[in-house]
């Protein structure tokens, strides 16, 4: 029996296989420095689309791998093997993002060389002043990172506890600079066990600002990082907590933190007593130093559509501990306020017609805290008539932000109590006027290629578009990595004046560090982005030294 398909159906049958054709990624894994092939490496293709399961293969005796049956899309390759820290394909530095691979339908991507750098280790011994081993001491290996605001701070990479001989070995460390910190168990669990030993950085200091750098090379075993914990007199902090909103102390939802004022590194303490009846608190086993003490008050409320919102308020006070206990500390939670407002759309369309309005969010992000911790942003949803209400806002300085599922929407204008507040809003008390916000829709498309000094495409490069004047507008920044062909595509860009940078090596939000950016300011390429425009730009690679 013969069946005749309609012409349209037949065309679909003939075209469908091409649009769904599977691709593959093939390459070899080699050891950095020698280029020797590495067998038994687990390679995983991580798809940009999280709905796709990541396939995994293992390299053969010649270090060869082949990942087949891949859907078109963007992938990152991750390698794992004993003796090597997990790494991404195309990393210029083991702590950086890798190169994303764009795979077309039916494409066979071949010839990749995935270079793995052997991991190192740090080992040593922790003793008391008499040479006796200290058992169960938590040894953390920390490294500097750039936080969201471009500030360098220490983050724990890996940790281990000392054994019965006081010895430790922390392994699987990528090459780089590290700091070692020993934290006695008593700092977190009890008042009585080793009460006079405090958290100490190598070679024997309490603040990371004066700690010694430990350099770990590829595959290096850095031994002899020994630390003697000295007993020292410890003190206590006494004070009270007051909520100015109620005039009473908080009953529950309260946490305390202690930070060095210089480095903002956390200070473990022995224990804390808090009496909700009168708001008094006592922090024990605190070593001498200059600190911020913070109290965080968490409250929960149910918003529209049964969304649970956890709001956090902070109270902060400086503390100097020298040779005695510190008393009469007052941690005051300032009263919070509510801010009403209304948004409109620049093209005159109704707010109710905005796509995915139910996921739009408008909020206030606290500018950098004086202490070591910043509260979460205050946010709210937007009603179909354009009105909104931001509740629970503490007094202080904030940045205004907008979230929309479609990146083409942005904050075009904002006024509050007669002031332009696009670059920052100061909340000093109950608002006398509404916050008026205009949402822009005229963003531009921005694509391009990065080339090196030989005009060859540069893969895995950090491309950052920075506003030329409004450096405080975090929402205007755009950053992305080039793919295997040196190509990049930024999220929709707000019209305005910018500088484009294409750094060979960049860590996290390092570009937000004004000292770092100042060194490269003249190498940025000026760019004018027109409303609703489309650009295809060629950028020159900026060589940078690993940090």
Could you please describe the fold and organization of this structure?
The protein is mainly beta. The protein folds into 5 domains: 21-116, Sandwich (Immunoglobulin-like), CATH 2.60.40; 120-229, Immunoglobulin-like (Sandwich), CATH 2.60.40; 235-333, Immunoglobulin-like, CATH 2.60.40; 336-440, Immunoglobulin-like, CATH 2.60.40.10; 444-540, Immunoglobulin-like. It is 4% helix and 49% strand. The chain contains 3 helices and 40 strands. The chain is flat.
What is the topological layout?
Blueprint: H1 7-19, E1 23-31, E2 42-47, E3 56-58, E4 64-70, E5 73-81, E6 84-88, E7 101-103, E8 108-116, E9 120-128, E10 138-146, E11 152-161, E12 167-173, E13 176-183, H2 186-189, E14 200-201, E15 214-216, E16 221-222, E17 227-229, E18 235-243, E19 254-260, E20 271-275, E21 280-286, E22 289-302, E23 308-321, E24 326-333, E25 336-345, E26 361-366, E27 378-380, E28 387-394, E29 396-403, E30 410-416, E31 419-420, E32 425-427, E33 435-440, E34 444-451, E35 462-467, E36 478-481, E37 487-493, E38 496-503, H3 514-520, E39 525-529, E40 534-540
Parallel strand pairs: 1-8, 9-16, 9-17, 18-24, 25-33, 34-40
Antiparallel strand pairs: 1-4, 2-3, 2-5, 5-6, 5-7, 9-12, 10-11, 10-13, 13-14, 13-15, 18-21, 19-22, 20-21, 22-23, 25-28, 26-27, 26-29, 29-32, 30-31, 30-33, 34-37, 35-36, 35-38, 38-39
């Amino acid at each position: 029996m013969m069946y005749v398909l309609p012409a349209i159906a037949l065309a679909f049958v003939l075209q469908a296989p091409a649009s769904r054709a599977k691709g593959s990624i093939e390459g070899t894994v080699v050891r950095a420095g020698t280029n020797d092939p590495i067998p038994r490496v687990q390679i995983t293709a991580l798809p940009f689309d999280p709905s796709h399961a990541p396939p995994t293969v293992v390299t053969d005796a010649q270090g060869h791998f082949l990942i087949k049956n891949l859907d078109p899309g963007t992938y990152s390759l991750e390698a794992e093997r004993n003796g090597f820290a997990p790494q991404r394909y195309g990393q210029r530095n083991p702590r950086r993002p890798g190169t994303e691979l764009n795979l077309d339908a039916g494409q066979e991507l071949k010839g990749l060389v995935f270079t793995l750098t052997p991991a190192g280790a740090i080992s040593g011994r922790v003793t008391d002043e008499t040479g006796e081993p200290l058992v169960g001491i938590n040894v953390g290996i920390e490294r500097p990172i750039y936080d969201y605001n471009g500030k360098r701070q220490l983050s724990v990479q890996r940790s281990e506890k000392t054994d019965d001989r006081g010895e430790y070995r922390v392994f699987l460390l990528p090459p780089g600079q590290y700091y070692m910190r020993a934290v006695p168990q008593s700092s977190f669990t009890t008042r009585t066990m080793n009460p006079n030993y405090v958290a100490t950085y190598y070679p024997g200091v309490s603040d990371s600002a004066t700690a010694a750098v430990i350099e770990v090379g590829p595959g290096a075993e850095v031994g002899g990082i020994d630390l003697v914990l000295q007993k020292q007199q410890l003190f206590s902090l006494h004070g009270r907590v007051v909520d100015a909103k109620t005039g009473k102390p908080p009953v529950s939802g309260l946490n305390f933190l202690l930070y060095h004022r210089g480095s903002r590194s956390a200070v473990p303490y022995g224990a804390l007593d808090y009496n909700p009846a009168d708001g008094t608190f006592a922090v024990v086993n605190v070593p001498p130093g200059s600190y911020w003490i913070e109290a965080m008050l968490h409250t929960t409320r149910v918003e529209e559509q049964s969304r649970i919102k956890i709001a956090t308020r902070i109270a902060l006070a400086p503390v100097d501990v020298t040779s005695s206990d510190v008393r009469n500390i007052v941690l005051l939670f300032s009263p919070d306020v509510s801010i009403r407002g209304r948004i409109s759309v620049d093209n005159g369309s109704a707010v109710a017609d905005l796509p995915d309005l139910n996921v739009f969010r408008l909020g206030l992000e606290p500018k950098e805290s004086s202490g070591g911790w910043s509260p979460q942003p205050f946010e709210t949803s937007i009603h179909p008539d354009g009105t909104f209400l931001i509740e629970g806002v503490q007094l202080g300085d904030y940045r205004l932000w907008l979230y929309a599922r479609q990146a083409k929407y942005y904050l075009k204008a904002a006024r509050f109590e007669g002031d332009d507040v696009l670059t920052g809003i100061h909340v000093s008390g109950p608002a006398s006027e509404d916050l008026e916000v205009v949402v822009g829709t005229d963003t531009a498309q921005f694509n391009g290629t990065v080339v090196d000094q030989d005009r060859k495409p540069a893969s895995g490069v950090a491309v950052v578009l920075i506003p030329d004047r409004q450096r405080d507008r975090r929402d205007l920044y755009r950053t992305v990595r080039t793919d295997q062909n040196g190509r990049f595509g930024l999220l929709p860009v707000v019209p305005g004046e910018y500088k484009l940078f294409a750094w060979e090596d960049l860590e996290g939000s390092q570009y937000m560090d004004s000292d770092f950016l100042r060194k490269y300011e003249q190498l940025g390429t000026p760019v004018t982005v027109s409303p609703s425009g489309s650009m295809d730009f060629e950028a020159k690679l900026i060589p940078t030294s690993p940090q």
